[in-house]
Amino acid sequence: MKNIEPTTKSGNFSNAVYSVSKRTIITFVVLTITSVVVARQLEPTNYGLWSLLLMVPTYALLVGRLQVDTASVHFIRSGSYTAEQLSFSLLCINVIVLLILGLISWLSQDIFFSTILSSFSGKKALVYLVCSTIPFEFISVSYSYLFLATNDIKKYNRQELISNLTGPILGGISLIIFEPEIEYLVISLIVGKIISLIHGIFGFHLKTSLTFQLNIVLLKNLLWFGVKIYLSTVLSYISIYVSGLFVATLLAPAQIAFHQISLSRVMLLGKIPQGIGIILYPQISSNKDDLKNSANFASRTFRTTLLIMLICGSSAALAIYPMIYILYGEAYMDSCLPFLILLPGVVLNESADTLNAYFMGINRGWFLSIFVGSSLIPQLILLVWLIQTWGIIGAAVATSVTLWISSFIKMMTFIKITKTNISEMLIIQKNDVRYIVNFINSKAKKILS
Question: What is the DSSP letter of 2?
């Protein structure tokens, strides 16, 4: 396999981030539009039921994805293994996990249908159809990370666009052409995930062969590295989305819809800087022996991300009320206040998440579990107390407070380990502003020329 060209230079890094960020913005816009179409066609109660259905593959991916795909980026970029070796190992692990997950889910289905999925006790077929997308999603995600690991940003972006947008676009069109029924959304979701898987398989294996050779040492290394990240990912996801489980259990479907809109919109905003962390992680992995420069680069990246998020967050706060009213309608205005409460926590959390790339790149992924786990118990206590008192407002308060706590711990740990000056870490500098302005100007000139 050819050596992967490093992109540690500022210009190459910026261009890669710009490419991923463009894809993220496109995803943000399209998902917002499709969400509006679906919400208006289904109305609050049915939209809440659809949101409940989507929790099934979401939580299956959360529980079953052992982050070995994330680990593959580290091993490929550090030169430990080749993409050919890793692709087969990832497939083996995914198949085993899917079989175990499927068996457990089948044996536990009565519990699910009597609790969180009780609204579908008479329509179990819908749940089974949604579950059929889980294998496609698992393997598709692996190919996304293989594209990233081999520095094929173009195919990585295309894979993510197909996976995230095909189903929602087809679903929105189906509701407009036919009838506002959840069944059309389910079928569209299945079609979208199948297309995503096909693109991943052919896009990757046209250039990289699949080596049918089981390497036990490689499997062990993948699982050991991946599980350290897995635990933190599960805890982080629980920290953000566990409020949805409490809302789904304790409140009516319409409240589920309001909570889902506020949470999904604010988390989409948080995806704006996602490209930074995605590109930073393989760069740190490629240069893990130069810790000082890696720390300086991560620190500057954090400040730049924080500046971007402050600008975007302020704009979103001003726009949320008219946006919800115009796009979703008056029936969904109860989504606005939870959005504003969640916003400060998401701004800080998404900025601090860029530091995750540093910890994973230097093989200290287990730190991430400590960051999130330290705030999880207080959040669960707050959720039980505040949802019963304030409903979805209480859920938003509990989640936002948790994000602040975990972000603060993460930043302080980075400062202590790297011996970075606090002011250098937290105070946005003129060079950061100049860097963003110059980058935007260069891209604007390129577009207009």
Answer: P
**Token pair belonging to 343:** 């916003």
Question: Who's near 126: CB < 8 A, 6+ residues apart?
Answer: 53, 120, 182, 183, 186
Q: List phi, psi (to 5°) of 78.
A: -85, -5
Which amino acid belongs to residue 88? F
- The pLDDT mean for the chain works out to 82
- Asked if residues 33 and 171 have their Cβ atoms less than 8 Å apart, the reply is no
Which H helix or E strand runs over 97?
Answer: helix 83-107
Checking 221-224 for CB contacts under 8 A at 24+ apart, the result is 221/71, 221/75, 221/80, 222/68, 222/71, 222/72, 222/75, 222/86, 222/89, 222/90, 222/93, 223/66, 223/68, 223/93
Angle of helix 216-250 versus helix 367-390 axis, rounded to 10: 10
End-to-end CA distance of the chain: 38
Summarize pLDDT for 138-153 with one digit per residue, the tens.
Answer: 999 999 999 988 888 8
- Residue 234 in tokens: 């599960």
Q: What pTM, to 2 d.p., does this model score?
A: 0.71
Q: Which residues contact 49 (CB under 8 A, 6 or more apart)?
A: 119, 120, 182, 253
Which distant-in-sequence residues (6+ apart) come within 8 Å of 270 by Cβ?
A: 309, 346, 347, 349, 350
Give the integer Cα–Cα distance in Å for 354 and 375.
19
Q: What is the DSSP string of 173-200?
A: HHHHHS-S-HHHHHHHHHHHHHHHHHHH
pLDDT above 90 (res 332): no
Question: CB–CB of 272/18 below 8 Å?
Answer: no
pLDDT confidence band for 240 (50 / 70 / 90):
low
CA–CA gap between residue 55 and residue 264 (Å, rounded):
12
pLDDT of residue 365: 66
Task: Using the structure block, give the residue that is written with the tokens 């600008």.
Answer: 311
Q: Give the dihedral sign, CA 108/112/115/116.
A: positive
- Count the Cβ atoms, other than its own, within 10 Å of residue 231: 19
Q: Which residues contact 84 (CB under 8 A, 6 or more apart)?
A: 1, 208, 209, 210, 211
Mean pLDDT: which of 110-124, 160-174, 250-264, 274-288 is highest? Answer: 160-174
Give the model's pLDDT for residue 7: 44
Cβ atoms 396, 385 nearer than 8 A: no
